[in-house]
C-alpha cells in the first residue's frame, strides 16, 4: 500500500521492544508493537513513552502521527499481518542462574498458527545459545525462517545506539540465508557492518560481548585497587593503556562494580552454559567474584573513613541507579553496597535524581531524601555511587556545613578533588593517590 516499507510486528514493548519499534518506524517500516499490558498499550497509543530514554518520546509521537507505528494488545494480533516478527521478550535469570525462557516459549507456541507463510521470526532478546533452533522446532513451520538478531544498545542511549550501531549481527537457524537477508534489509539505511552467520554464533556473540565487557571492568577495578596500595593513579594508567589500539579507551572507568539488567545476568548465564556442557569458565567466575568483592572494598573504605565502626553511622548516598542517565535500579551496585552498609548498622540517607519515593525491596534500607543537601544533613560521610553530572555542580561548601564528618568517598572518580578540598572535605576516589 501507499506507506511502503516492510510490515513488522514487534512483540514486547519493554526496553528493547519499544526502542526497536520506534526506530524501525523512523527508518520507514510499518510497525505494530504488541504487549500484554493493557495500561502500557493505552499509554503508548496516547503517545506517552513508557521507558525513560532520550529520543523515545519523539519516535512514538512521530510514528503514531505518520501511521507507521501502532500498538496492540497481544502478540497474535500483531504477528498475523507481519512479514517480519521480532521477539523482544524478557529472559530473566531463572532459579539456576540460566535464562528463563518460559515467556518466550509460550509466545512462540501461541504464534504458530497465525504466522503468514514465508514470514521471518527474529529473536532480539539475550537467550542461551541454541534458542533460535529451539524456536524453529517449537514453531514447526518449514515455511517460516527463524533468525537471531541480538541487540547491543545501552540504557540511556538506546535510540542513539539503535540508529548508530557498531555492527548488526544476524544468524540463521537452519541453512537458509534468505530470512537473514530480509532482516538485514530492515537496516538498509544504516551505515554499519552487517555480519551474517548461523544462529548459535549470533547468540554467542551477544553473551561473549557482554561477558568480555564485564571481565574488562573487573580487571580495571582490581588494577585500581592495586594503584591505591602503590600510589599510582588509575586515571593515568587507563589512559596509558587505552592508547594501545588493541585495548582502546572506552569501558575502562573504575567504579563500585558493574550492574544493571544485563551484565550481571548474562555473566551468570554464560557460566551456567559452560557448566551445562560439562565445561567451566573460571575466568568469568573470577570476574563475577571480583565484582562482589568490589562492593566489599567500597564498604571497607567507608568503615575506615568513619573510624572503624559503621553501627549507628549516618551515611549519605548520592546516586542509586546502576549508572547515570537511567532510572533503572536493577542490580545496581549502589543498592548492593547499601545492603552491606545496613547489615553493619549504618543509617542510610539517599538521593537520586530519578528516585522520588521508597522503592519496594530495593531501597527499603535507604531513606530517600528530596535533595543531596537533605541526604547529607548530619551524615558522617558522603558516598558518590552514580555519576550524575549534577553532583559535580553541587555546592560542596554547603554540604560541608551540613555534615557531621569530613569524608567524601567517590566510587566513580566523578568529582574534582580540589573543589572538595577547598570546601574543607577529605576526598577519596578509586585508585587515585590520596
Ligand atoms: C550493556 C552493554 O553495554 C550493551 O552493549 C548491551 O546491549 C546491554 O548491556 C544489554 O545486554 O542489553 P547497559 O546494561 O545499558 O549495557 O550498561 P553499560 O553502559 O554497559 O554499563 C554496565 C555497568 O558497567 C554499569 O554499572 C556501569 O556503571 C558500569 N561501567 C561501565 C563502569 O563501571 N565503567 C565503565 O567504564 C563502563
Automatic annotation (TrEMBL):
It comes from the Bacteria. GO terms for biological process: polysaccharide biosynthetic process; UDP-glucuronate biosynthetic process. Keywords: NAD, Oxidoreductase. The active site is at 262 (nucleophile). SUPFAM superfamilies: 6-phosphogluconate dehydrogenase C-terminal domain-like, NAD(P)-binding Rossmann-fold domains, UDP-glucose/GDP-mannose dehydrogenase C-terminal domain. NAD(+) binds at residues 35, 40, 91, 126, 155, 265, 330. The keyword Membrane does not apply. Its EC number is 1.1.1.22. Substrate binds at residues 152-155, 206, 251-255, 259, 323. This is UDP-glucose 6-dehydrogenase. It comes from Saccharothrix tamanrassetensis.
